[in-house]
Design brief:
Helix content is 1%, strand content 56%. The strands form 5 sheets. Strands 1-19-18-17 form a 4-stranded antiparallel beta sheet. Strands 5-6-7-8 form a 4-stranded antiparallel beta sheet, with no helix packed on it. It has a 4-stranded antiparallel beta sheet with strand order 9-10-11-12, with no helix packed on it.
Length: 308
């Protein structure tokens, strides 16, 4: 496989300022949506005073991304009702446009006792520009007899009459030497006719490199000149998140590049971790939103692809 192009870091775009009690820390899993011209709305997950995840947004100009034009002022997705699959948090994962509607796929999570949490995938739809409404009080992708742990961050693309999803799938929990549970998850593939009901055959898109790798997450996929291209986060027991790359001719079977395509900086907000990529194109240029240290506590930044 031809090696992936390099990325030039533009810098940090946003970090939360605790202006609201529902946005005290974190700006995780950023998603870009073009408004008009060079203006983008960036959705992301923040945490409230009770450490629950909510989804909000800011507006930036791609030409001067460090100067936020519109600060977060409203909640886009909030936690569900007590006992529902998302009562501990609703974290935006991907937006797919279809027939004038916006399908907002999100991670819903609950706190647990034997393990720290359980995730699943929910759907909220904006069909009238009056805000997103939950499709249902329950998840559309959850654990099954053959995926018994949890599902989370997804990328959803509609291609002709087929909807495609690449999603995080947990394969096990195990106990660490310190007595705390740790998860392992990789990326699987599913298809749908309507973007709501998904046919999951257990197809693995990006698998673990070895036993030391414990987390592969947040797939971001584009179709470019006949090739499916994916960027994703990965980490091992002794290395924090880095951003990797893979490509495919059918979107199902993937060839994974060696090593990271985006590394940590020598110091600063992304010196320990780079994670949760979102890759998008604008006016012939490719960009990547990504998180830095501590899973987004230090905010998110922007990088630009440099042709090799």
């Amino acid at each position: 496989m031809k090696s992936a192009n390099e990325w030039l870091k533009i810098g940090r775009v946003y970090t939360p300022s605790s202006e609201y009690d529902w946005a005290t820390t974190h700006a995780s899993v950023p998603i870009a949506e073009l408004i008009e011209g060079d203006l983008f709305r960036i959705y992301f997950s923040t945490r409230d005073a009770k450490h629950r995840s909510v989804t909000t947004s800011v507006v930036m100009n791609i030409n001067s991304p460090n100067a936020i034009i519109e600060q977060p002022s409203t909640i886009v997705l909030s936690p569900g009702a007590l006992g529902e699959f998302d009562d501990s948090g609703a974290m935006g994962s991907w937006i797919t446009h279809h027939e004038g509607n916006k399908y907002f796929y999100y991670i819903g999570w609950n706190l647990c006792s034997s393990v720290p949490f359980r995730n699943s995938i929910g759907l909220s739809i904006n069909s009238n520009k009056e805000g997103f409404k939950r499709y249902s009080p329950g998840p559309i992708v959850d654990r099954t007899p053959f995926e018994p742990h949890f599902c989370a961050s997804c990328c959803v693309l509609k291609n002709a009459n087929k909807w495609r999803m690449w999603y995080l799938s947990c394969t096990e929990w195990f106990m660490q030497s310190n007595g705390k549970p740790e998860h392992r998850y990789h990326i699987k593939y599913a298809e749908s006719k309507d973007g709501i009901n998904w046919d999951r055959q257990g197809v693995i898109a990006i698998d673990y490199l070895d036993q030391n790798e414990i987390a592969i997450s947040r797939p971001s996929v584009i179709f470019d000149k006949g090739i499916w291209k994916m960027w994703f986060s990965y980490r091992s027991v002794d290395l924090s998140y880095r951003i990797g790359y893979a490509q495919s001719y059918d979107g199902i079977h993937w060839d994974r590049a060696k090593g990271p395509v985006l590394e940590v900086s020598n110091d600063g907000w992304d010196s320990e971790m780079v994670a949760y990529p979102y890759v998008f194109q604008h006016k012939g240029q490719r960009y990547m939103l990504y998180n830095g240290n501590d899973y987004g506590r230090t905010g998110f930044g922007l990088a630009q692809e440099v042709s090799s």
